[in-house]
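hiii, so i know i said id send this last week but things got crazy w the move. better late than never?? heres the sequnce for the chain we talked about at the cafe, plus the structure i predicted for it. fair warning i was half asleep when i ran it
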Amino acid sequence: MNDLQQFLGHLVHALEAEGRYGTAHVYRSTLHAFAAYWHRRHGGAMPLRAVFRTVVLRGFEHELQGRLLRPNTISTYMRMLRAVYHRALRQGLTAYVRGLFDGVYTGTRADTKRALAPRLMARLLPQPGTACRREQLWFALLFVLRGMPFVDLAHLRKCDLRDGTISYRRRKTGTPLSVRLTPEAATLLRRCADPRPGSPYLLDILARRLPPAEPGSREEYRRYQSALRSLNRALPALARKAGVEGHVSSYTARHTWATTAFRKRCAAGLISNALGHSSVKITETYLKPFENEELDRVNRLVIATCRR
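okay and structure toks below
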């Protein structure tokens, strides 16, 4: 277990045994990326004590930058390696290195504006009484259910809906949340509900025309990934048809809800609670593009004032 390949392989199997397939997937992707870098530079095995050195980590980051990966993707790989390092350190499999990850990027940048202006978001929402694709209904539900993540929407159970309120736990953080249905949300839920009495799912995202998968199983995760890909493939076409420019994905509904609430003078702390964030700092990352937009607007006003 002193080799990164073996150590991470064991960790991935343990996560999958717990049904944490998403986390296992990120660790596996990190291993593949780092192994490709290591074998080009060093070849052979990847001893943990040799891997967790400042020069190695900085070299890996530099290679990822050379491949023009997005900063947040690079940060994900680095944060996964940092988590592995701390696990290995607790087990006595590697040496403590002071400030090992201080020289590499492990933050989250909000350079990309993911939120839409309200008038553009309105173009993507289905109109009452009109036919539309299931993916458009899903996207609309993400928005009207207070920016709910798609993973939580897809896994909602019928027992989560009681007396017009959806109560659930975020799959990412375990945070308990309750969302009172608006008339718009209730209508959308009816349009894509799973009507089968034997199905535990509230919506037909994971079980349409198929028997329900075992909760927490690999098959359930596979269906979720398939549905997410379907959604993210459909949204750009929907945006083009609606005349909405820019990248639109499943995250757009969540970011748009948060930014619109902020524009309506909702406090960042309340928005953080609504989204189920573990920290208000994460919410502030969502709102950073809006703040930059406001600063650019003020900058134009200042320049215009000084030209008079």
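btw The radius of gyration is 22 Å. thought thatd interest u
miss u guys!!
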